[in-house]
Write a structure and sequence with these properties.
Distance between the termini: 45 Å
Structural class: alpha+beta
Organism: Cellulosimicrobium funkei
Shape: globular
Subcellular location: Cytoplasm
Radius of gyration: 24 Å
CATH topology of the largest domain: Alpha-Beta Plaits
Function: Peptide chain release factor 2 directs the termination of translation in response to the peptide chain termination codons UGA and UAA.
GO cellular component, one term: cytoplasm
Helix content: 40-55%
Number of strands: 11
GO molecular function, one term: translation release factor activity, codon specific
Largest sheet: 8 strands, mixed
Length: 370
């Protein structure tokens, strides 16, 4: 039996869609699509594969965003018609169907509305994510691998392209660390709220006595550097070491010294790359990630200066931002937003949109309160 006030709900849906359109501006999107379509049709587009990839990705994203706004408007019109039919025919099944669709539209609008909250300097960028095992021994290494799969599955669900840049395997199981790119507009804006310390509580599969184990993994998210960014690193500030790439358990997967470890001497930042086939490719990838990390350091220094001038600002993220509990009960809870679910399996399979949305809204609220 339908239990909602349809006129009020539909009016609220239209209001939310209008606020989204005021930010995304369909006319601006159409102009952007026309410009990108012209660039994409250029006969020499793929002479520069990197530039071509950026053009086609931006075009696809703009087309997708415009289509989502148009479809949501049509769905609101359709559900309004469905309600009128149900009320005229006094058909309860039709009204229940309309109520379900109203809920589905609200959820899709909420997700689209989150995009309008991503207005940070680098939010529109692609992202580079690094996961590192923390305290907890082999369980922490296994947890790091679980998180890597979780984020790759999340990207796959959205059709985002990913590239694993570096993996350092632990001796017994799991990963010491892994670095990957998410090649999609606003990937950094979305994933930046995932940065911090994640905690896993479970019965350890590596403990002969079946004891409960708590382990930790750190997630770092940085915006991908672009050619327009002015991050120049003098050669004298970089130390480059080369070594052979290796797979799980130390097994060699490359007989040449193609892997690269790049150290930025002034800051001590270290970047390793081994997943490309040549030393030149790994060196270029390492330099790009190093530049991205230095870009984030520069932004953090600027923010620190602003905080010093403004005084103490509420919005501390803290070290431990989310707990994944498998024993003695099943729950995943974000400690900043209080958002929680009782299905860790779905979360580890990439179902983290609600956590990301809650994090983005929490961050915006904290910034406004500051």
């Amino acid at each position: 039996m339908a239990t909602i006030d349809f006129p009020t709900e539909i009016k609220a849906l239209r209001s939310t869609l209008e606020s989204i359109e005021s930010v995304s501006d369909p006319e601006v999107l159409r102009a952007k699509i026309a410009d990108l379509s012209e660039k994409a049709s250029a006969p020499d587009l793929w002479d520069d594969p990197d530039a071509a990839q950026k053009v086609t990705s931006a075009l696809s994203a703009a087309q997708s965003e415009l289509e989502r706004v148009k479809k949501l408007g049509q769905r609101i019109d359709d559900v309004e018609t469905l309600v009128e039919m149900g009320q005229e025919m006094e058909d309860e099944d039709t009204l229940v169907e309309a109520e379900t669709e109203v809920g589905a539209i609200r959820k899709d609008l909420d997700q689209l509305e989150v995009r309008t909250l991503l207005a940070g300097e680098y939010d529109a960028r692609e992202a580079v994510v690094t996961i590192r095992a923390g305290a907890g021994g082999v369980d922490a290494a296994d947890f790091a691998e679980m998180l890597l799969r979780m984020y790759l599955r999340w990207a796959e669900r959205h059709g985002y392209s990913t590239t694993v840049l570096d993996t350092s395997y632990a001796e017994e199981a799991g990963l010491k660390s892994a670095t990957f790119e998410v090649k999609a507009p606003y990937a950094f804006g979305h994933l930046s709220v995932e940065a911090g310390t994640h905690r896993l509580v479970r019965i350890s599969p590596f403990d002969n006595q079946g004891r409960r184990q708590t382990s930790f993994a750190a997630v770092e998210v940085i915006p991908l550097i672009e050619q327009t960014d002015s991050i120049e690193i003098p050669e004298s500030e970089i130390k480059v070491d080369v070594f052979r790439s290796s797979g799980p358990g130390g097994q060699s997967v490359n007989t040449t010294d193609s892997a690269v470890r790049m150290t930025h001497i002034p800051t001590g930042i270290v970047v390793s790359m081994q997943n490309e086939k040549s030393q030149i490719q790994n060196r270029a990838a390492a330099l790009r990630v190093l530049q991205s990390r230095l870009l984030l350091v520069r932004q953090e220094e600027e923010n620190a200066k602003k905080k010093e001038l403004a005084g103490d600002i509420k919005a501390s993220w803290g070290d431990q931002m989310r707990s994944y509990v498998l024993q003695p009960y099943q729950m995943v809870k974000d400690l900043r937003t209080e958002h929680e679910v009782g299905n860790p399996s779905a979360v580890f399979d990439g179902d983290i949109d609600d956590f990301i949305e809650a994090g983005i809204r929490w961050r915006r609220g904290a910034q406004q309160d500051a």
